[in-house]
Kinesin-like protein (Ignelater luminosus), 393 residues
Amino acid sequence: MFRLGLLKVGNGLKMVKNKKDLKSPHRNRSLTGTRPISRIRAKGRNIRVIVRVRPPSNREQGENFSNVLKIVDDSTIVFDPKEENVPFFYHGVQQRYRNLTKRPNKNLQFTFDRVFSHEACNNDVFECTTKELIKTLMNGYNCSAFVYGATGAGKTHTMLGRGDDPGIIFLTMRELFKQKDELSQERHFEIEVTYLEVYNETVKDLLNPGPALELRENGQYGVIVAGIQVHRIDKSEKLFDLLEQGNKNRTQHPTDANEESSRSHAIFQVCLRMKIISTNEIRLAKLSMIDLAGSENGAATGYSGARFTEGVNINKSLLALGNYINGLAHKQRYVPYRDSKLTRLLKDSLGDNCQTVMIANVSPSSLSYEDTYNTLRYAIRVKSIKPNMQKNI
Ligand code: ADP
Ligand code: MG
């Protein structure tokens, strides 16, 4: 006999009924008679969703916290595994979660395209995410990669990294330049980059701070940011300075979770112009790499005034992004991209004929219980987008 709790199947969540189910996601088939939803949808999609669990911080290790994540295999993760059965702590955030009196969700199993543990370095993540996008980009399709998660979950670490563990922006650009050099007999390349932020629904150039910039649509180039400074680069080494310079200009405020919490979405865009020498064909493609603002619930952080508005705008734009992706997945006739600057900017980089990878960053700690749960739910919703690539790539 199983002791059944609440069974959740919608959005790919599955309740694990007892300890032995944790061993394999396939076991659930025989128990419920259905296949895990996320497995059915995983075939041939043009969006891949990866989860990365960061190492516990010193504070989390030092305090009496519990681990709320269990990685079952390289694509399956269990949120709040029952077997852990340890006390639940909300250190320092009782105010924020004052309405939660007990552990609200237990033993939820999620299946993603890949799950990385705290042992993974940025290069491991790169190999399974943006490296694959480069081929698509070379074929003339737009691509996007975004990191999602609460403040302190490891988004910026994944994107930018540090000296001994460079982030996926640098690794992707290095690979792009490598492939460009290999193809130099067949193609001429021009590579230009821009770096901007969307803060409170305004777009600003991070490499040339100034007034808010407008978005326009252009038949040839897709969505463009009018007046943004474009940097032509031919070596990945030059990127370090550019990114460092841009990040200094990013809108940040201290929060409970992080001394330097990014309150804006930072978008690094690479425009690739290729001329195939034998045919004179021109191919244009764009890669957008987005470090999203912290996804924690702005309205629940207890802030007021400008900080509250900021949180509301972040939530609105992340919701709009989720809705846009979901609209594409369900082939809605009208997909609501005008709801936020973020979706307007990414309109030509998500969905049909584009390839996208989302990296959901989470903390393993019970301190971030609600944020981790929300991130996993958002990520599984994104995972349901369906394929419609017109060409094989
Ligand atoms: P976010 O951008 O999501 O707010 P950060 O990337 O700034 O979070 O990460 C918060 C802290 O955790 C930083 O000090 C960062 O260096 C550290 N960190 C995050 N992910 C990792 C990781 N995978 N390995 C080592 N340290 C990490
Ligand atoms: Mg950050």
Remarks:
- The CA atoms of residues 327 and 335 lie 5 Å apart.
